[in-house]
Structure prediction request, 325 residues.
Amino acid sequence: MNDAEKLRRELEEEIQSASSPDDFERIRVKYFGKKGLVTLALKSLKELPLKERKRVGAQLNALKKEYERELKKKREGARARYSAKKWDYTFPGRVSEKGGFHPLSFVELRIREIFSSLGFKFVDGPYIETDYYNFEALNVPPHHPAREMHDTFYVKGHGSILLRTHTSPVQIRTMEKMKPPIRVGHIGRVFRVDPFDASHAPAFTQFEGLYVDKGVTFKDLKGTIMHFIEELFGKGTAVKFLPTYFPFTEPSAEVYMRWKGEWMEILGCGMVHPRVLKNVGIDPEEYTGFAFGMGVERIAMIKYGIKDIRLFTENNLKFLKQFPL
Ligand code: PHE
Prediction:
């Protein structure tokens, strides 16, 4: 078998397995382009002995005649088929992968929905705070354990600048700007020097609520919290308020709910401390208010039965795909 016969065989094999317009164009260039195999073979004919030159030359020319234009035609044909396919509305649909919400986003959206319908406005607040907003204005005394280095991330070289340890500084920032009646919610990240294990994370999400007006009582706080829990976890969910201590509320309570046979602590709350109101120039004789704060991961963990807080940040698709839209 001489070169021309070999080229024909290879060319025909390649055409057999081609299908797209690009396939045919690639083959055409490979064999008949300026540096194509057939083109080069024709150019080097003169190196052959005269007798062979004639025979091989004829074969190569035949090959060229037969296929060079044919490949262009095949390319056009393939192109037409491809674009016809593109517009074939009877073609069976292919299912593309659907996105979903992160479980924390789900809970966040529900929280926003429930509290917006109660007239709360959602506001923003900075993650990098000063000692004043994170602690002092919230009536956290200088030697309170929460100020110790092991709880708080401080910005090196700037003693009073820190990563907020809770969303409560948003209470202060809001009350500085707004006059009562105030009804605001805030959801965002908080940071604590904590280990990263199944139930702790150095960064997590909190939801803060604040309501200040004339005549706001503990009854309003209780009703609001109960309503929230029932909306999120179902009517008739048992809830209990136990007394506790927060420097910025008085009285203060931690709230537990009954879930799958167990009492789960889900939030801290209380009546805004008169000193906190004074710090922002609101007269505690005229106004009262309540505030509460809760961990959004914790709510999601209870709601969806998630056992490890690290799952929220691992971006494991097997986990995330369990929360389709
Ligand atoms: N800031 C408190 C915490 O992080 C929660 C809280 C908020 C308690 C508002 C009372 C009022 O634990």
